[in-house]
Structures are given as C-alpha cells and as structure tokens.
Amino acid sequence: MTAKVVAFSSATEGVTGLASLLAPSVVTQLLLGTDLSGAGPLVVRCFGVALVAMAIACWPSDTRGEPSMQGVRALVLYNAMIAGLLGYAGAALHLGGPLLWPAVVVHAIVAVLLVAAGRARGTATSA
User: Fold this and answer.
1) How far apart are the C-alpha atoms of 106 and 37, rounded to whole Å?
2) What is the tens place of the pLDDT at every residue in 50-84?
3) Which domain covers residue 82, as residue numbers?
4) How far apart are alpha carbons 11 and 58 in whole angstroms?
5) Taken in order 15, 100, 90, 116, is the CA torsion positive or negative?
6) Which of 19, 76, 91, 115 is the most exposed place for a label (fewest CB within 10 A)?
7) CA 27 to chain centre
8) How many distinct structural domains can be found in the chain?
9) CA–CA dist 75, 111 (Å, integer)
10) Cα–Cα distance between 37 and 19 in angstroms, integer?
11) Do the domain assignments include residue 65?
12) What is the torsional sign of CA 41, 46, 49, 53?
C-alpha cells in the first residue's frame, strides 16, 4: 500500500508542479481564487520546480517498487504541512478557489495514509 500512496502523491505533485511552471496564474486561481502580481508568477514557478523535484525524488524506485523511508517521510511532512497551510489560507485568510478545500482534504488523507503505511512497513521490517 505504501508504494501506491507514494506513487499517487508523487504523480499528483509532479503534475501540479508542471502546471505551476506552465500556468502559474491558473493554478493560483484554482487553489486560492486570487490573481498574481509582481513576483507572484515567479514564486509559483519556483514552487513548481520544487514539486517536480520532490515527485522525482520520492517516486518508488527500488527493485521491488518500494519507496525509500526518506521519501515517505518527506511526503508525510509535505502533505501534512501543505494541508495545514492551505487550510489556514481558506479559514483565516478567506482565500479560496474551487480546488482549495478538496486539496486540503486530499493532502490530509494522503498524510494519514502514509503515516499508517509507514508504521505498518516499519513493524513488518523489524520483525
């Protein structure tokens, strides 16, 4: 299960990263419901680069198709923190595009699934 969740998260973030590189204003509108100005497009594109790099680094790649524990930890941290940050943007800053709350929910679920799968994997490998 860990490999499937990691693959889903990596693929989703890779696509989001590419979209952020190619159309930063569209991504910002869909997530936050606001326009970009000044250095905004550049910042979103930098975020896109980071997402693509994370997707590549975390993709399950060992001979059994299992992700590294470092990759799982990175994705847990990212998904939990981005869920919190986007939730804060919606609740406290009153920002919100059509994909904001679905993104919060998906990131939170992925973080929980990765923690559960990582614990199960850790238990299985320590026996």
Assistant:
1) 28
2) 999 999 999 887 667 778 888 889 999 999 999 99
3) 2-121
4) 10
5) negative
6) 91
7) 14
8) 1
9) 7
10) 18
11) yes
12) negative
